[in-house]
Specification:
The protein has a single domain (2-257), classed as Alpha-Beta Barrel (TIM Barrel). 41% of the residues lie in helices and 18% in strands. It contains 9 helices and 10 strands. It has helices at residues 15-24, 51-60, 78-98, 116-128, 149-158, 170-176, 180-187, 214-223, 242-257; strands at residues 2-6, 29-33, 64-69, 102-105, 135-139, 164-169, 191-196, 198-200, 203-205, 229-232. The strands form 2 sheets. Strands 1-2-3-4-5-6-7-10 form an 8-stranded parallel β-barrel, surrounded by 5 helices. A two-stranded antiparallel sheet has the order 8-9. GO terms for molecular function: isomerase activity. Residues 19-254 form the Xylose isomerase-like TIM barrel domain.
Length: 259
């Protein structure tokens, strides 16, 4: 398994600052939050970026891309759904040129947005991905339409594509009351990326200080032959400690990888 840091660990920093801190924390791989402008521009709007320029920035800090994280395809209006789907297509083109094999994508809000239009977007993207060396990992997220085991069952009953898999987020499963280890045992063949978080209830805490069953999850994945990324995510309340938590988190990831 390779170990990565998500740029959300340093969401208050510029992209250059984030890359520097990821490198200084000891990481070789970074997952970059390149959300569309409709959501929240954090570490890059792909409409305005060039793959060769991002590659040069990564090289400057001795880093490689683990994934591009796009947030979610929202479905509050048809125009918004189409715009975010088009952004995902831009991300696929961008990732292929960058040499990044993974896009992380999420689903719409469970309480206020419909699910079926999201499935139409996934069907379109599955066709678009044909011929690209890129896959989409659908991330579970608390309070959206990819939250429970049955949500993934619904998706994969309709969309059977080797280009569409799962980004398993252990923290969001903890928030939703789902054991990530049990989920990993059931869906290991679909898991193509992992967000390692630690939670107490719905609250993100430093890795190793919460109640999330990360050890059980990694054991289940390793037993099934998973060899992708373990990507650290931190969304802690005491964000001023993010640098320290990230460094300690790398030690935690190494422990998980050695299980």
């Amino acid at each position: 398994m390779d170990l990565a840091a998500s740029s959300i660990c340093w969401h208050r920093d510029t992209r250059a600052g984030m890359l520097r801190k990821a490198s200084e924390s000891g990481f070789r791989f970074v997952e970059i939050l390149t959300f569309p402008p409709e959501l929240n521009v954090l570490h890059g709007n792909l409409w305005l970026m060039k793959p060769n320029e991002l590659r040069a920035e990564l090289t400057e800090y001795g880093l490689e891309p683990a994934a591009l994280h796009l947030g979610a395809i929202q479905t509050s209006t048809e125009q918004r759904r189409q715009s975010l789907t088009d952004y995902a297509k831009r991300a696929i083109d961008f990732a292929a040129e960058l040499g990044c094999a993974l896009i992380v994508e999420g689903g719409p809000d469970r309480a206020t947005e419909p699910f079926q239009p999201f499935l139409r977007s996934l069907e379109h993207l599955a066709r678009f991905l044909e011929g690209y060396p890129v896959r989409i990992g659908l991330e579970n997220h608390y309070n959206n339409w990819i939250q429970y085991t049955q949500d993934y069952e619904h998706i994969f009953d309709r969309i059977d594509s080797p280009k569409i898999g799962i980004t398993l987020d252990s923290g969001h499963f903890t928030s939703a009351g789902v054991d990530p280890a049990l989920f990993a045992g059931k869906f290991a063949d679909k898991v193509i990326h992992v967000h390692v978080k630690d939670h107490i209830g719905i609250h993100s805490v430093a890795l190793g200080s919460g109640e999330t069953n990360n050890k059980g999850m990694v054991r289940a994945l390793k037993q099934a032959g998973y060899d992708g990324f373990l990507s650290q995510e931190l969304e802690v309340a005491d964000a001023d400690q993010a640098d320290h938590y990230a460094r300690e988190g790398l030690k935690y990831l190494r422990m998980l990888a050695d299980l």
